[in-house]
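As a warm-up, study this chain.
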Amino acid sequence: MFVPAIALLLASVAHAQLNIVVSEDGGIVEYSQVNAIPYDSLAPFHQSYTNYPKFPGQTLFFQGMKNDVNGYVNAFYTTNPLNGNAAIYHVMDERVCNTAPDAVVGKYFDVLKVFCQQNSRYCLLLREQKTGDEIYYLPNIATTNNFICVGNYEKMKQLHVGKIFYALGKRIGMVGGGSLQTKEKTEYKAIDMGVELHDNGAYLILEDCDGQQLKGIPYGHIVAGFVVKERLDSLSTRYGKYYGEKIAFQQIVDGMSKEMLVEALGDPIKKGQTTYNGKSAEIWQYPEGYTIVVQNEKVISVRNSSYFW
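Now compare it with the structure written out below.
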């Protein structure tokens, strides 16, 4: 089921100095709206467990998973599982202790508290907005990506909708299903945000001149698989049209400076030393498959990653 532009309401965030409360039982740190770490709305819920202390006072939407016909195991409880055995919320099948999908999918939850055990195990106390049920959520790989923070959704909408983007030539998911190998530099406009129930994450709806719509996944100021026109224009102003376009579309060419290289691909995952044409040089390696030779602060060779290592 596709739900375009779900009307989401921002929850208020209490900004205060961190005042950690540690329980005597189990070494559990408790965060509430009183002592929540300020949340800037740029981080999605699933980005990192270290963000959880930022979420008290926020509202979450649970969209579910495509295979949720079997319910959710080790996720939703009526008591805090960090304290030991806990009862499952809305048990669907007692043999596997799973929560029924219709009890949580498509629901809005206010985050009341976040609990952190000393071994970095987290648990969130949620209140379902319609029923008022208080539910303990134990984050896990299977379900965490299906929570959308309303504040992040609204922030991404504010940052990106209405802007022009250019495709980087990657394979991108299509609204309504399937995927498309985009043609580099094809222009798209962000027209809205969207969410699909029984799927994974919110996305920007990017539309080309023919009305074809793609899913752009936002990560703060970046949209995966695309470059925003503002960045392209800025890079062209700073480095000239030729290098500006190369950097924006992540194309590495000889003559680029180290600064341009980092602008295009970020910091390398590995650096090494070598000799190139009889002179000392550096090798920069990237997960995209690039192995790049840098000499006298300039890119002088771009090779397959297996060439030097």
